[in-house]
Structures are given as C-alpha cells and as structure tokens.
Amino acid sequence: MNVLSLHNVVKAYANHVAVNDVSFDVKKGSIFGLLGPNGAGKTSLIRIITTITAADSGQVFLNGEPLNRLHPNEIGYMPEERGLYKKMKVGEQLLYLAQLKGLSSRDAKIKLKAWLEKFEILSWWDKKVADLSKGMSQKVQFVATVVHDPSLIILDEPFSGLDPINTNLIKDEIYQLKQKGASILFSTHRMEQVEEICEDIVLINKGKILLYGGVGKIKNDFKEHLFSVKYEGKLPETITNHEYQIVSNIGNEIIFKGEKGQSSNDLLRGLIRNNINIVSYNEIMPSLNEIFIKIVESSNE
Amino acid sequence: MNKIWLVTQREYLTRVKNKTFILTTLLTPLGILVFMAAVVLVMSTGSDKAKVINVYDPSNLLENELKTRDNLTFQFSNQSISAQKEIYKENKINGILEIPALTDSLATSYVYKYHSDDQLAMDESYAIEAAIEKKIRDFKLKKLHIDVNTLKNLDTDVSVDPVTILEDKKISSITTIVSSVLGGIVGYAMFFIILFYGMQVMRSVMEEKINRIVEVLISSVKPFELMMGKVIGVGLVGLTQIGIWIVLMPIIYFIGAALFGINPGSLSDMHSINVPVDDIALSSQDKIGQIFIEITSMNWYKILPLTLFYFLAGYFAYSALFAAIGSAVGEDINDASSLTLPVMMPLMFSMYIGFSAVNAPDSSLAVWSSMIPLLSSIVMPVRLPFDPPWWQIMVSVVSLIIFTIFLVWVAGRIYRVGILMYGKKASFKELSKWIFYKG
After folding, report:
1. CA nearest A98 in B: which residue?
2. Is A2-216 a CATH 3.40.50.720 domain?
3. Chain B residues with CB inside 8 Å of A54's CB?
4. What is the third-level CATH fold of B51-154?
C-alpha cells in the first residue's frame, strides 16, 4: 500500500520546467528520501504534494485517492525556511496551526499539551516566539507539523540548524512516528542522514528522476566490487602478483577490485588459499554521497 | 469557509489583544479630551493671580456693567487718579481704569486709559472694551432719539433658498450647509479609515511572507481563504475601534466635564464674555436649532446603510489590493512604497473629488466619479446627504459590487503567486502575468 503515488507529474514555469515527468511511490510506514541538489525541483514537487500549487499534468494520489481539498489535513509539512509568528505566544500559535489542520480547539489543546510535555517544553506555552532560540522554535515547529497525526509527514531539511542533541531527539521522534504508521517524506541534501534514516530514495536533478529505489539496492547497483582486507604480518607475494587488481596498499590494508561474477566468498577463499593472516575483510559499498555526486555531475554534463 | 473564520479570528484577536491597539483605542478619545481641556484651561487662565482693578468712573457709566470675575475684581472708586496711583504704589491694586464722563456723543472711536505698569490680558481688555462699547451704544441711542425696537427693525437676515420645481421635497440653504459639512466629514473619514486599515492588511501580508510562516499556512489553507480571513479580520478590528470611539467619546467627555468642572459650553462662552445677547446672537441660536432640525430630517434610513455599504465595498476593494501589493514585496519592507503608489492614487483622487463634490454635488465630475468603482466608494457617500437621484445610486452600487468582486479575485490571483516569490520585488508587468498563472 502506498501512502503517496506520483504519476508523470509535470510542472513548468515561465522559463523552465521545474518538474519533468516525475513518478514514484512512497510506501506506507516508510521513510522516503527526496534528494537533489539546490534548484533540482524538490520544493516545486513538495508544493504540488501539499496542494500549494497544482501540477500542469500528471496525477498525485494520497492514500489511493487523487489529491483533493481535504488532503492538506492529512499532511504535515515543515518547510525548509521555517517561520512562526514572532509576537504570538507558543501555545496560541500551535492551537491556531492545529485548528487550521482541522482539529477542534479541544482536541488540539489535549494533543499539543501531550506533545509539549513529551519535549519537556510545556512551560513555554505562554512564551512569545520572539523569545525562543532557533533550536527551541524548531521544536515548536516540529510539534506544529505532526500534532494532527498526519498520514504523510513532509520534512524539508529538518535538521538544519539543530545541535546534535536536538537532532537525535527529532530523529527519535521520526522513528516513533514511523512506528505508529506514519510515512515520512524527507527532503535533504545531507547524504549521511539519508543513508542512516531512509529506506527508499528518489534522486532528482533539473526536474527529472535520476535514481529511484531502495537504499540498499541502489548501493548494490553502484558498487565497484572493491574489497578491503586488513591483515597481520607480511603480505604474501602471490597476492600482489596474481589474480588481484590491487587498488591501494597502505599500512596493513589492501583494497582490491574483484571480477563482476565473483562472489565475496570466492574471493575470501582465494585469499585464505594464499596464506594471508586476515584481521578483517569486507566489501566496500559506495556511500550515497559518492553516488549522488557522481550521478548529478554526469547528468549535468 | 471554516478556515476563513479561523484566520479572521486570529487576525482579530491578536490585534485587539495587542497593547498598542488597546492604548490607542482608549487613549485617543482621552487625548482629545485632554487637548480640549488644555485649550479651555489655557484660554480661561489669562491671569492666574488675583487681580484688583480700581475703576475711576465719576459719571457711573459702567455701573452694574463691569462684573467681577474669578480672579479679576473691579472696585469703583471716585478718589482722584493721583490719589489712586498712591494706592497702586503700595501694591494694593494692579491698575486703575479711567473712565471720564461721556461728552462727545457722536464720536466713532474712544480711547480710555488704563494706568498700570503691567498690561491687561487679552480677555480682560476685551471684556472691559465690550462693556464700555455697550454703554456708549445705549448712550448714543438715547442721544439720537432712536428706539431700540426701531433699530431691531433695521437688522435683516437674508438667505436665498432653493425651491424645487419638479420634485416634491423641502430644501433650504441650511440643508446645503449641513449636507456639505456632513459630506466633507464622511469623505475625509472614509479616506483615512480605508487607508489606515488597508495598510494594516498589507503589513500583515508582508509580515507573514518575511516571517516565512506563509508556506506552512498555505499548506493548510487556500491562499484566497488566508487573504479573505485577513481582510475581514482587520476590517472587524476597524469597526471595533470606531465603535468603541463612538461609545467612549461622549462618556469620557462627560466624565471629564464632571471631573475638571469644564462646562461643555465654556469654549463658546469665551467669545461672548459680557457681550450682551443681541439679536444677532439670537438668530445664530435659531440657526443652530434649524441645523438640528435639518440633521434629524435627513433621510438617515437611506444615508446610513448606503454609507456603510460604500465603506465596506471600498474597504474590501482597497485592502485586497493592498494585500496583493504586500505579497509582491520582496524581503525589503521599503519596497512597498513604490508599489502602493498606484493604489494610493485613486484613493487620494477620490478624496479630492469628494471635496469638490461638497461644493458642487451635481457637477458632472462628481456625478460621474460617484458611479465609477473605486472612486465611488468615497465620492458617493459625500453626495448622499445631497439626495442624489436613485438611478445614480443604483448604477453606482451595482458597478461597485461587480468591480469589488473582480478586484478581490484579481488580488487573490496575485497574492497566491506573490507570497511564494522571494528575492527582489515584482514589477507591475510581472504582477499582471501572475493573474493568469494557472494552478
């Protein structure tokens, strides 16, 4: 079951095509990464999903239904450029935003209190936003995004400007929300976070999809069959001479490239046969960051 | 609809609960009162120290005419001037007024002496002069054998009254004056109210855009709902403020009058100290009565609802435009001024036409502009007390409704695109393109 499905979505502005024939699905209860360099069309895409703008052509389905006027209440959106009313009190502001998402004032109050309690910021209820630090107002913003139990949560660079403690706090919340069945669309260009959190990703550049799929599968597709071996003692000459394409040999570690057909077990067996004292052995997987840069650069050429 | 109401509520409550709003709403009438009290105080305390003036009046010309007032005491004394100057030197009196007996009955100017090293205050010398003038007038009347009633018959009050030929309605020159004043006040008030609250809408739009909260908001509400909620909310704030003033003004006025002992009539009293109530004053009192009759006889059932309609339609049209402009402003608040100019122009223009309509309510300029939307919302209310024909009102109302709806739609189209555009402010060419953007 997909919480979100895009079919051939196109959005053009006066002088450029921001979203060009984009299709992907976000599985229910998954964390999905929407990646792309600056100006790739991520924000345009998010604005279409949040019904802020409409696509020129193509279809968007939320929980199996074509997007309609009631859907914004099922989506929680935290934009990259965050903002709150500076002169309003935290409580009033959250109540207002929650009510705009369709909660009754009573429900909103109960849920907000629970959330603020959870973040240990209930005492901020009567504080003005102008008096909060950046990290503090980010927590408030996060609460505003999720208070109405949206089935799809869209977070645009949610960790920017957060210290490691608050980053972990929000990360834990994201996992918990996922546990409860929410799906998270996570837009960023911080690859190490994507690798850590996301199950599936879509990479877009210049409005077009470059990559789409599970993180593990993508890494597998892009791996270069490089293996790292740490050893003790002397490196047998048979290894340096035969069979193995040594890429680097520094200290007590060699990195070599295997043939495409060979399994890592075969390679390991070969190494043992050559009498090497192996301390560790592992295949080097490409980082998403490397894949990202490689793909984007080649698509820009 | 429900979401418009939520936005309206927020716009209204945050403004009404704002300290500045509460202070200006409460302090403005108080300020006016304090100002009036200050004026009264300044004018009535020409002399704060008690003054004693000796009057040398051997012929008893001013007997019973010069009355002792708050801080000013007149003492009649027939001692010689030189003897009184001795008393002056002992600081017992502040001056000596010398009134020699009248001899030349027909002179047109008289000079009297006031012996003192200090000058008389304006109102003091005015009071003394008025008293003497009245006495000389009586004296002259007697000398010339003129009967007071004969003199009264010489006074004539002429007014040219318009009389309708075809229509059956009563009008008088007073009607014209009352209508002019009323029209002028209404036109001026409309201009300021629309401008003031329209600008508030604009500032509120800009605040949300620069704050970046707008993107969160429009992921929950349609931009048009957000704009309308804002316009309605600020409009309600305006109505609240004006309502409070209408209630508060008389209350504060009477409380103040009781507290400071200011007689509401004392301002006008200042000018008539000791001046006899003569026939001119009588006729002016008549006029005041007539003005009240005119005011009450106006067709308020027609004027009031229509004025309210023009105010609301004008407010909606202009504030929607201000909202659109607010959305087009980039990150720099100062950009707003050049963009507001084209909206300010019809507003100012209509106010000036309104002023000329006060003098010539049936001039073709006034008639036409009272039917042209945007101009009509100020010009027509000015003309309303002059009882313009119904067909003109109908044309004006219908065209204003249609045009306001159109303008709100256009403003909504611009707003919807503008609030998501960052960077430099948009040009008018871009704004016109935004209207036709799809989605």
Report:
1. B220
2. no
3. 438-439
4. D-Maltodextrin-Binding Protein; domain 2 (3.40.190)
